[in-house]
């Protein structure tokens, strides 16, 4: 280990930066967040450094570096000029005075290196490549940023506030450690991440008052998006990694299911036309029952749970039975498939509104407000439309929509197997006849489909 990691308190501490360019500005901004008193020596400085002067965070000495500028008054010195000779002089003077020094792009002159930082104050994570590759450190930091919620610092503050109270009421160290492990991975932490700090504190009080509630369960209703795992939200992925059991449907891509916690029990509750593996009412009750047993239950749905996903029915049952739940929206198929097909749902020249409908039959008929759907300057997106595509096209034409209106049928959208078939209302049936089309499908109707060939970036 070439460098031993330390965290240094710089509040109200004098620090010197020699240089006024972009790198110097980046270092100054980091020091400013730590509360340092910064002096910059440089003939010219960037706008970002000038803004720190306006905030009275930084003092600018408007000249070139001179021998003797480094003094024992400074705790940290950073050499960030484009003159290697000047940088070396700064380093030598700092070393002579035993002052910590960092020299940009010259690790052999450094006594300290400045890591890439994930700032969740008071939680700080530092990543370093040992000065071998600052870019690699930044890439690693970016990956870690996706795993650490923005409000992690608030969670640390809450723990600090309640630590003594928990220690007084849970006197056995092992039991106390178990309490905090559950708190950091369960409903208490999730309330903090959602901005509900007061509710989180109340839940801690409740758990401390009634030890039987320490294993309370919760339901996570998570939208898995249309298929591409990269479209998952950070919050969705975090909850997927915490689940004890997952109930998932047919529209959840296998690649997404693979991201669920390995130890979680998997329960398939998918539906397809005219066949339901599990009735919706049974799904609702199962979610409630498992949570009341103390389990963290993940309800994973394709797309967005509140857009033709029956998520409202599920949380209605949970609310009635007093089961805690969270709802995480997902990228709905309309948005995801349209983007990956290069079809903007709205466009100033083609459509000023968009409407979502489902193509599922009700009582054996496709019951839609045809007059409303046939309006001009509008995009119509039809979910689950393949089975009744002929009826859909015929009814729209019968109610006034032009037979030449462009249509796109998107199959397995946003995945590597995505296929887009474009036609018109009049020709779509002939266009897809005899072709093997795989579910799930989505139909986009309107003049915006004309842009598919021009804007299609996904390649099919």
List the helices and strands and how they pair.
Elements: E1 14-18, H1 22-33, E2 37-41, H2 47-54, E3 58-61, E4 76-79, H3 84-96, E5 100-103, E6 116-120, E7 123-127, H4 134-145, H5 152-169, H6 173-185, H7 187-193, H8 197-209, E8 218-223, H9 234-240, E9 245-248, H10 254-257, E10 265-268, E11 271-272, E12 275-276, H11 280-292, E13 296-301, H12 311-320, E14 325-328, H13 333-340, E15 353-358, H14 370-373, E16 378-383, H15 389-398, E17 406-411, E18 419-424, H16 428-432, E19 441-445, H17 452-455
Parallel strand pairs: 1-2, 1-4, 2-3, 4-5, 8-13, 8-14, 9-10, 9-13, 15-16
Antiparallel strand pairs: 6-7, 11-12, 16-19, 17-18, 17-19
Helix pairs in contact: 5-8, 6-7, 7-8, 11-12
């Amino acid at each position: 280990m070439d460098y031993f990691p330390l965290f240094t308190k710089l509040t109200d501490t004098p620090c010197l930066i020699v240089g006024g360019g972009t790198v110097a500005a980046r270092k100054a901004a980091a020091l400013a967040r730590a509360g340092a008193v910064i002096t910059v020596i440089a003939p010219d400085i960037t706008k970002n450094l000038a803004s720190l002067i306006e905030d009275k965070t930084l003092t600018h000495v408007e000249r070139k570096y001179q021998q003797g500028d480094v003094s024992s008054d400074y705790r940290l010195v950073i050499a960030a000029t484009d003159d290697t000779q000047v940088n070396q002089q700064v380093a030598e003077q700092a070393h002579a005075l035993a002052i910590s020094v960092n020299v940009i792009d010259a690790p052999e002159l450094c006594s300290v290196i400045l890591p890439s930082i994930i700032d969740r104050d008071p939680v700080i994570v530092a990543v370093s490549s040992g000065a071998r590759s600052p870019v690699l450190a930044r890439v690693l930091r970016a990956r870690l940023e996706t795993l650490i919620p923005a409000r992690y610092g608030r969670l640390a503050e809450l723990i600090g506030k309640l630590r003594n109270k928990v220690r007084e009421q849970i006197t056995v160290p092992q039991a106390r450690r178990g309490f905090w492990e559950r708190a950091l991975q369960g409903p208490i932490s999730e309330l903090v991440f959602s901005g509900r700090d007061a509710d989180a504190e109340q839940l801690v009080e409740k758990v401390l008052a009634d030890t039987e509630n320490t294993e309370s369960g919760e339901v996570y209703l998570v939208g898995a998006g249309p298929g591409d795992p990269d479209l998952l939200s950070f919050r969705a992925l975090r909850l997927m990694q915490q689940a004890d059991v997952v109930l998932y449907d047919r529209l959840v891509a296998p690649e997404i299911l693979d991201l669920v916690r390995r130890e979680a029990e998997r329960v398939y509750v998918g539906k397809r036309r005219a066949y339901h593996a599990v009735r919706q009412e049974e799904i609702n009750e199962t979610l409630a029952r498992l949570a009341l047993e103390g389990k963290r239950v993940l309800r994973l749905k394709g797309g967005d749970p509140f857009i033709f996903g029956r998520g409202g029915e599920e949380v209605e049952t949970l609310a009635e039975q007093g089961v805690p739940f969270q709802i995480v929206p997902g990228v709905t198929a309309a948005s995801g498939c349209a983007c990956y097909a290069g079809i903007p749902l709205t466009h100033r020249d083609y459509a000023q509104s968009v409407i979502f409908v489902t193509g599922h039959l009700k009582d054996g008929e496709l019951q839609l407000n045809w007059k409303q759907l046939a309006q001009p300057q509008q995009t119509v997106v039809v979910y689950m439309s393949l089975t009744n595509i002929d009826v859909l096209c015929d009814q729209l034409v019968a109610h006034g929509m032009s037979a030449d209106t462009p249509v796109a049928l998107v199959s397995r959208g946003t995945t590597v197997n995505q296929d887009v078939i474009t036609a018109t209302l009049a020709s779509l049936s002939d266009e897809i006849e005899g072709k093997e089309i795989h579910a799930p499908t989505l139909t986009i109707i309107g003049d915006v489909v004309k842009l598919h060939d021009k804007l299609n970036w996904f390649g099919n």
